Every structure is written in structure tokens, then in C-alpha cells.
Amino acid sequence: MKKNIITPIVSILLITIPFLSFSQTSNCITHSKTNEELAANPERLALREQLEREYEEYLRTPENERAGGVKVIPTVIHVIHDNGSENLSKQTILSAMEAVNLELRAQNNGINSVTPPFNNIVGDPQFELRLAKIDNDGNCTDGITRTQSTTTYEGGENVKSIINWNDGSRRYLQVWLVNTVGSGAGGYTFLPGSNGAQSNGIILRAAQFQGSLAHEFGHWMNLSHTWGPTNEPEQTSNCNFDDNVSDTPNTIGISGSCNTAQESCGSLDNVQNHMDYSTCARMFTAGQAARMQSAANSSVGGRNGYWAQSNLTATGTNAGFTNSCVPTIDFSLNETQGCEGLEVDFEDGSWGADEDPSWVWSWTFEGGTPATSNDPNPTVTYNDAGVYDVSLTITTAAGSDSYTRQNIIMVNQLGGGISAQYQEGMETSSFPDNSDPMFQWEVESDGGLTWQRNTTAAFTGDASARINLRSITAGNVNSLISPPIDMSDVETANAFMTFRLAHANRNSTNHDEQLRIYASRNCGETWTLRYTESGDDLNTAGGNVTSTFVPNANQWRQDQVSLATMAGEEHVLIKFEATSDQQSYLYIDDININPDHGVGVDEIETLSSATVYPNPIDGTSQLELNLTEADQYTFVLYNVLGKQLSTITRNLSAGLNRISLNTLGTELKSGFYLIQITTESGQRSIRFVKN
């Protein structure tokens, strides 16, 4: 077998895996420094060469003379989050830690189903990752930190400057969990001796924590991929490389499958190896375990210091050590807004301490039933409309901490919405917030960039609502939800919404950004889909815009959404839901709900028919009216915002009458318009469209 002294510096995980999958399916492509780059850093090069010499010496040492036994590695999990799914619960983290520790002792599920001949060479690496009980400042901890930061969407070396427990020392294996690794990868780590103490550790997408930690720990303990230091698996050239482990056969590697009969380099491949990318990874070989133990005994990269008794004592990971900490209070809830009778499930999310029997939870629910609770995860009912605070205090043997979330619960009075006709142009500077809770818009987001008011572009006025889909992870959904609208006296024909939108594609492929609009009659418990546009149909720019998209007046489009199924309902919510494909900005302006309502519905008995033809209008369009009697009529033209544009009065005779629309206005922009026809006996409304 060949020996490659200059091994890759950084391994990178690329393919996303389902969380809690016990099989390692993530690709870990090496973005390594070249030999020339290493040669330019004599100190790092010397360390890497020293580590390989020590490994060769370790292999020559009789097994009974090696520094054996299980080595405990003090570990801290830094959760870098923006209140999204990346903010893993403590139970999820503990479950993942338990799973990886079983893998590092060859006791994991599936270890007894390793196929021949590799079932005879399963190795026990003899490591345990143990969460620290004392932090870098000597304070009490449970080994998990939580830091809210938008860097979670571009995770990399940047997060290490936000929180770092190895400032000039090597005491903890640090694992930073993020929403997205900035390079687009799934995670990475550094091999021993290839970096400094502060940058030492593992970066992982939170969604890949359990499935990928054993793989990355293998790299952290000086293991290469089974095919050696190349950039890609499944390349025939990989047969020319080696991983410096004698009992792992040369292989091209495998990605995203599990063919245990694969022979790629003249012998059977060990596809069930943690350092490959198969969907059935479950083992390290005895040779890999020896290479990891050799690295753990070396001063290169300081791996021998982590499990030293003095460090275990300093980090509170020595056998028998216990502590009792004051937790940092936090909690989550499944609903924040609803109708009277709203039921909310609360969940304690406090961190920084291990729960013990001394803990006492004291909840206070303003406006809720019950008003107080000692349950760690209570359910509360809100029967009366209002905006309410929630507080939680946890008292432990070590002390107590409290946290209040103000105005976190909004309960709407069913039928107490904005009366019928409603317009929103985002002109209020605090939008989506409003000093009057009745006009409050809500934003639903996984965290990070989402809907916000902007004054960069608007069709009418100075502002619009905008979302930067270009910088949001593909597939992420962000919603903008209206305040409740009372449509109890709106007729079906008048139940609709118009709005302006602007959007552009950034490239010609893979553009599938989507805007969906839903309506709810039960405070958002269920939603009815009323509108969908995506891809090219959502593009109003007429082509691709590679720079930041700022629409001009001709790049806005007006669309109409039927709300007929909501007519007669006393509490209606409208939801604008945007799904990212990392294309461009999406703008919304001039939202008008039930714009015809309130114009007048009393019929004119002497008016047999009224029609705009042709419609959509052009320069020849006319308003045609059939009258049974002569009378005086007033015609008022409104735009979709309800703004009066012009008015004329005509004495009309019995029979057919034609009035050119040019007399009402010739400089009309694209959009919907309304003509209100009035006489002494009543009113009628006619709508038309200008394309």
C-alpha cells in the first residue's frame, strides 16, 4: 500500500442527509492545500510529517505497550441559530451524542451486520465524547451553548470568532452547529497539526449532526477517506491513492448507495466504512482505530492533551464529577396568534444546565387559562381577545432565572376584523408592525432574511413589501399574513383582492421561485390556496437580472385573487407565501381587499344593462348603457386604491347610449378600474382592466 505523507488539510461534507439517520450518507470532499502550499509553511509541513512518523512507530509498538483504554474527549456543542430549525433541542443533541459514542465504541446499531470479510476486522476506536461541565471561564455549564446570529446562514470560520472556548488553548473538542455552511457544503474539520488551537474543531449543518459527526471525528483524529486524499469519490483515478491504513482496500469510493458487492480497484470495497459515503456506513476498521489512537497519543495538534486527566478535571469531564447550574431561560410555543379559544402548547427550551429533581418551573400566562403552571411544557387556552405576555422562572438548587416575552400572544375576536374594504400600501414606517394591533401584519419565517418594508421601490407611494429570495436558502418559505378582515357583509361578486408584484429571475436554469396566496376563515388553523405563480410566470422583468433587482414602473404587474369562498365570513386572513430558489427580490405593493365593497349596490331600475367594450380596454373602448327612460347620470372613475380619478355628468336618452372611456381618462396605467354610475334611483358599479 502506498503512503502519502502530505494528506488533505480540510474535509468538507457536501450532500445533505436526513437528520437522525444512523447511516452516513454525506459526501466529505477535501478542499486541501496543495503540497506546494504546505511546503510554503515549513512548520505545518513538519508537524504533518512528524504525525506520520509517530503513526509508523505506533504500529511497530506491541499492542500491550500502547497507551490503550477509552479516551474521554471534553466536548462543547455551540448552537449558532436564528430561532430556526437549526436551534436543536437539548434532547436531540443528547441523542446524537449517544449515537456517535456508540459508533466510537463499535456498539452501534448494525455493527453485527457488517458483511464478510470486514466483519472480522471491525475496530473499536475507544473514544467517548463527553459534554463539558465547566466552561472556559470556570463557570458551570451543560456543554451546550446557544448564540443567536445570522451567521448561521453562512457558517464557517466566521462563527468561531463569535464563541470559542479554545482561545489559545486546546481543551475542548468544539462542534459548531449552523443552518448552512457558507461554502454550500455540509461541514468540515481540520486534520491534526494543520491549524491553530482557536480554529480547531468541527463545523456542521445542524441537520447533519447525528449522521456526520463520527465521520468528521475520524478526520479530526487523522483519518482520510477510504479512497485517500482526493477531491471526489467514484473516480477511477482514486485507485492510485491510499488512505494510509493497511486493512482498508483501495477503492474509488461510493456515494449515496450501498452496494456491498462493489469491487472498484480489484478487490471488495469496504462500503460500510464511516469514512466512505455509503448509505449503510456503520464501522471503522481495526487499522483505522489504531491510526486514530496514534493521533490521540501525539502532541501534534494537541490531541494528547484533550484526554489528559488534568484537562478532564479542568473541564468537569472526569469520572464522577457533577454540578448544578442556573439555566438560561428560553421557551418556544406552537402558536402566537388565533381566535378566541386559541390553544397554545409551550415548551421549555432553557439551556446551560442539566435538569435535576430540584428544578421548579413557574409560568405566568397573562390572559390565559390556567393563569399559572408548574408544568415544564404546559398547554394554555386564551378565551378573550387581547395581546398578552408570557413569563417563565426556573428555580434550581443553584439559583433561579426568569424571562418574559412581551406581547407574544395575540388573540383576535372572531368577527372583530377590519371592516370589508381594506387597502395596504406599506406606507406606515413601522410596517409590518402597527401601533394598533388590529392592523398588525405577521411574518412567519424559519429565521434570517424575510419580508420587510422597503423604500427602494414602490408602484404607488414610497414603500412596498420586499423579500430577498436571492439570499435565502432554496426551499425556505416565508409568509406575510394580513390582519383579520371582516367580510360578513361582502357579496361573492365583490370578494376579491388585487395587488402589485415585481420579480425577476437571476439565471435561465433552476428558477422555480414561487408565490402562493392563501385565505383562512378560522384564524389560520387551516388555509385555502387561492393563487400560485412560479418560475417564468412570476417574472415581471421581461428577462434575467443578475444584479440586485429594483423594478421600474414598467416592471410591476397587477394580479387579482378571488376570495369568493370567503364571502360572508366574519374573520378572514390572507397569507402571501414566498418560496426561495435563490433568484431575486420579490416586491408586493398596493394590496386591495374587496375594493368594490361600499361603492353602492342599489340597482338602477331604469338601467337595463351596462358594459365596457372591449375589455381589457384599448383606445376605442366605450361604456355602453341601455336605458328604459331618459335620466341624468353621473360617472365617477376610481383606481384600484379607491382614489377618484375623474367625474362627468350626462343627460342620457332612453335606448342605447355610448360614452367613450377617453372622456373619463386617457392616461391610465395598467391595472383594474371601477366606474361608479349614479342617478337619483340608485347606483351600479362596472369594472374594467387596462393591460
Helix content: 10-25%
Shape: elongated
CATH class of the largest domain: Alpha Beta
For the record, the CATH architecture of the largest domain stands as: 3-Layer(aba) Sandwich
Largest β sheet strand count, sense and barrel closure? 8 strands, mixed
| Average pLDDT rating | 87
Strand content: 25-35%
* CATH homologous superfamily title of the largest domain: Collagenase (Catalytic Domain)
Query: Total strand count, please?
Result: 38
Catalogue the unreliable spans.
Answer: 1-26, 29-35, 598-602
According to CATH, the fold-level topology of the largest domain is Collagenase (Catalytic Domain)
> Any idea what the radius of gyration is?
33 Å
The tally of structural domains comes to 4
Q: What's the N-to-C terminus distance? A: 73 Å
Structural class label: mainly beta
**Alpha plus pi helix count:** 8
Considering the chains and any ligands shown, give keywords for the structure:
691 residues, mainly beta, Immunoglobulin-like, Jelly Rolls, six-stranded antiparallel beta sheet, disordered N terminus
